[in-house]
User: What shape does this take?
Amino acid sequence: MNKSVTLQHETIVSVSDLLNERQLTIPEYQRPYKWTQRNIASLFNDIKTQSDKPAYRLGTIVLHHSKDNAGNDVLNIVDGQQRTLTLMLTVMAIIKHYNIDNTALSKDEKTIHEVLGDDLMQSVPALARKQAFASDVSIYNLHTNFQEIQRIVNRGELSVHHIDFLLHKCEVVIFILEDESEAFQFFDSQNSRGKALYPHDLLKA
Assistant: This one.
């Protein structure tokens, strides 16, 4: 997929639509990625227990629309980094497990290919490649959690039905902020109720 999904300022979108948005960016002021295997187990358990429902809400993603150094539009993730990165890791693990970049596809691989769609198979790896993480904590947790998600997928704990439900029936509420000071205020207020920020996180912001 070469074009962005173009998320609306206040809308509800599927996980697939969220991850198809190529303008998503982890800003420098974000705290480290600190989700653990316990968070992953909780997320996947929710997916399994709710997968008989027509839809399931995963929470809110708050974005700040701005320009990068090259003048390109970007959507900085103000709130929802932990979930968004974990969802990206999950799609990457699914792609790797089913080897669906191979031209000779098995029946299961063809089914997963249809569930993911060509757009998601291109956009998620591209999204992952463009993110930069200065924090060793983030790099370690991303690597560890990717391995854990791979083990879950390899053991068959996420069926095709669960993957389809996650991508197309699980939803997030999107808010896009245009004002930079409003975005930083929101970042500060959200993080003060979540994981503790290091002083340099707010200094960078």
